[in-house]
Design goal:
The chain is an alpha/beta fold.
Length: 302
């Protein structure tokens, strides 16, 4: 009679949900259970060893497909090695996670993409993840969409998964006692993920964040500013058109708050028309450098 344990017991031993174990078995042939006389799957010590090997490889940055392949090919009796395939250099590790994330998202593999995020957040600090993995991936995704090498479905799948992870990192970003920043994309601008990255980085510099999201009408933004009295309002757009269309309102807003334009749309022309300040660099670096000058004429209280 076959010897082994049911999937619930295997799940308890390795700390992996039964749903994920079944996914690894189905997608990557990681597990090779026997069948009991009653037809139940029974998992052996070898199955447990492969799961632990895969967990180890995921922790050190391999994609789910790579980790499963390494676990299947490991010699009998091999134990998790606890080494990082990319060494100790953070830039090398970030490049590896970028490749693994791209592979998972291109393949619509949510489980693998979530595993990559979990692994890199254990290995790297949040700032490095945002600056060296998330932002380069988003820039590459946009370029690939323009050239037609990814379709709308792929772009939406990737963007929505990344949005969910950014939202988790943003939890509580409006709490605290630091200066407040209101972040929004003006009417007509739908791409707000880089602005979310900026907000997360800014929050880690001590700011409180109020995030209004994409396609925000200027009248609603002005109402929010009157209510919140923030130290800074940051608007982001991928083209200058939304800024130019709202130049008059932005100039008026500059009388009550320090207004900053960001993103590729913050061209010198748009910044001048709005009477604002432009941020030209990457969102993480600009968040770390942001300094709001004291302007006595502004009706803004700290």
């Amino acid at each position: 009679e076959p010897v082994g344990v049911r999937i619930g017991e295997l799940s308890r031993r390795v700390g992996v949900s039964t749903e994920l174990l079944r996914a690894w078995e189905r997608r990557y042939r990681l597990l090779q259970p026997a069948r009991s006389p009653k037809g139940y799957r029974l998992y052996t010590d070898q199955d447990e060893r492969r799961v632990r090997l895969m967990q180890d490889q995921l922790t050190h940055g391999l994609s789910a497909a790579e980790a499963a392949r390494a676990a299947r090919q490991a010699p009998a009796g091999a134990a998790p090695v606890g080494t990082n395939p990319d060494g100790d250099d953070e830039s090398d590790a970030a490049m590896h996670y970028h490749r693994a994330l791209e592979e998972a998202l291109d393949g619509y593999d949510e489980t693998a993409a979530q595993q990559v995020f979990d692994a890199m957040l254990r290995r790297l600090n949040v700032t490095t993840v945002l600056r060296d993995v998330v932002m380069p991936y988003l820039a590459q995704l946009g370029a690939r969409w323009v050239e037609g090498s990814v379709d709308i479905a792929q772009e939406h799948f990737a963007s929505n998964l990344i949005r969910g992870r950014l939202a988790a990192l943003a939890l509580g970003w409006g709490d605290g006692v630091g200066p407040r920043a209101v972040l929004a994309c003006p009417k007509g601008e739908l791409h707000d993920l880089p602005l979310m990255v900026f907000g997360i980085a800014l929050n880690r510099c001590g700011w409180r964040i109020t995030f209004l999201g994409n396609n925000t009408p200027m009248t609603d933004l002005e109402n929010a500013v009157r209510h919140l009295r923030p130290e800074v309002v940051v608007l982001a757009a991928t083209t200058p058109a939304p800024f130019l269309a709202a130049a008059e309102e932005l100039t008026r807003l500059g009388g009550t708050a320090f207004v900053v334009l960001a993103g590729a749309g913050a061209t010198p022309e748009a910044v001048r028309a709005a009477g604002a300040v432009g941020l030209a660099g990457d969102p993480v670096g600009e968040a770390q450098r942001l300094q709001v000058p004291r302007r006595p004429e502004l009706a803004v209280a700290r």
